[in-house]
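User: quick one - fold this with 4'-deoxy-4'-aminopyridoxal-5'-phosphate bound?
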Amino acid sequence: MTNAELQQRKNAATPRGVGVMCNFFAQRALNAELWDVENRRYIDFASGIAVLNTGHRHPRLVAAIEEQLGRFTHTAYQIVPYEGYVTLAERINAIAPGDFDKKTAFFSTGAEAVENAIKVARSATGRPAVIAFTGGFHGRTMMGMALTGKVAPYKLGFGPFPAEVYHAPFPVALHGVTVEQSLAALQTLFKADVDPRRVAAIILEPVQGEGGFHVAPPAFMESLRALCDEHGILLVCDEVQTGFARTGKMFAIEHYAVVPDLITMAKSLAGGMPLSALCGRAELMDAPAPGGLGGTYAGNPLAIASAHAVLDVIRDENLVERANVLGNRLKERLNTVRERVREIAEVRGLGAMVAVEFHDPATRQPDAGFARKVQAAALEKGLLLLTCGTHANVIRFLFPLTIEDALMDEALDILEEVLGT
Ligand code: PMP
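Assistant: Sure. Structure tokens for the protein plus 4'-deoxy-4'-aminopyridoxal-5'-phosphate:
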């Protein structure tokens, strides 16, 4: 079956709403490489949207999944529990920031973790409202969409959304929004729209993922924590994209002198198996009554087994340090290229969560066309890159942290070539 034949069948059989970036079909993959059905090889700098911090088919993940496959694949944890779920919760409670008792529940998708964060926050505080930020992305469920701070394409035609969700501007210096302006907007929100005593939670990504890899300034994060403490609001960090060593820390919030009350996790948690988690203060996590949390597939045994292997690999292969090494190497290369390529507006990121933003050098307006051109040229040369950003003018880098040095060099050479042409 060729890519073209599959493409035709795909278009006839599946809805366009499931937008697909590539016009080739995966055949197999290993670590940071992927081959299509016509045996063409790609260096994978997408990692299935930040899922493969430990690479494709890491042997230890494969072994863990195979071992579990030989025992049982599903019982529904809420019917017949299993030890792996409990042990994984213990491990996450131990590594998540915060010097207090924690509890963790597992789900399948990032959006589900977010949904449950809001459920727990409302249940624990008895308050209805939630504040999120412009440019934030929190998933495609109804609450996920409501919290997401970008209309097209995520919210188009899908409303009405759950009530009592408010947005404040996320501080992005490059786009002219300062920390002071964001904080002032929150005060305006409290005056104009919602009494802070009715706010259950403020949710944000420490580094906005889909929104453009904008790093929350430390002063902003600290002010949010203070604001939450002042009004009895819970601080929720959505670490679905930032978690599990990507930013050069296990969790991005560890870059800050701030501890959140609840943390959502997914993506690289289980290295390609569908698993998400909500970890938080024990007393908050225990607010919902038995039966209020869960799901048939939530905490699937194969995914749990895979997540244990992910944590082992991150520890044993020093992937936290490796993220910093690889991220620095990428940033250095981009900053060298920057001297020649005037479309580069900014190179930014934490650890290996790096992005490059493009603008028109004359007008300084976001240049999505340039980002698209670089992406297409890289793909032509076998390097799979993702874009992001409210204006789609950012290229983000999400290579496996297990990528071999030689392959990283090959990818950086392609990148330099396509940026300069
Ligand atoms: N939150 C963040 C920060 C994300 O990046 C994503 C996915 N891009 C989600 C939530 C939703 O995760 P999922 O697609 O697994 O539902």
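One thing worth noting: The chain has two domains: 3-57+318-419, 63-316.
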